[in-house]
Amino acid sequence: MPHLRIEYSTNIAGRFDPALLVQVTADVLVASGVFSPPDAIKVRLIPVEHFRVGSGADHGFIHAGLALLSGRDGDTRQSLTVALVDAIAPLVGPGPQVVQITSEARDMDRDTYSKRVLPGA
């Protein structure tokens, strides 16, 4: 726990390094000190080919959706989402499109979340 799903519009795909984006955002979550053990953090990067922003302007987006087990206070959730946006922004290079970078934190119901860790070989 947590699960970070980063979606991005494919019209900005060449403006950032995907591996670096995943590494930096994972590092932000580890550095927060909120999650223990840090190996429970999962980050996924998901391209979105079909999308529309507002009135159809040629904008792009990166959205970091952070799913957390319920019970974290609002200040903690807010500090995590601000840190993610602040870490992502400098990774995006120049280009013709406006890029909207957003983040949100959602609660997953602690009572219904299930997890099993299988040992490695």
CATH superfamily: Macrophage Migration Inhibitory Factor
Anisotropy-based shape:
globular
What number of domains? 1
- What is the CATH architecture term? 2-Layer Sandwich
* Side-by-side strand order of the widest sheet: 2-1-3-4
Q: Taking all residues together, what is the mean pLDDT?
A: 95
Pfam families: CHMI (PF02962)
InterPro entries: 5-COMe_2-OHmuconate_Isoase (IPR004220), Tautomerase/MIF_sf (IPR014347)
GO molecular function: 5-carboxymethyl-2-hydroxymuconate delta-isomerase activity
Protein name: 5-carboxymethyl-2-hydroxymuconate isomerase
Topology at a glance:
Layout: E1 3-9, H1 18-31, E2 42-48, E3 59-69, H2 74-88, E4 98-108
Parallel strand pairs: 1-2, 3-4
Antiparallel strand pairs: 1-3
Helix pairs in contact: 1-2
State the gist of this model:
It comes from Zoogloea ramigera. With 121 residues, the chain is of the alpha/beta class. It has helices at residues 18-31, 74-88, and strands at residues 3-9, 42-48, 59-69, 98-108.
Describe this structure in words.
GO terms for molecular function: 5-carboxymethyl-2-hydroxymuconate delta-isomerase activity. InterPro entries: 5-COMe_2-OHmuconate_Isoase, Tautomerase/MIF_sf. 24% of the residues lie in helices and 30% in strands. It is of the alpha/beta class and 121 residues long. A four-stranded mixed β-sheet has the order 2-1-3-4, covered by helices on one side. The protein has a single domain, classed as Macrophage Migration Inhibitory Factor (2-Layer Sandwich), CATH 3.30.429.10. The mean pLDDT is 95.
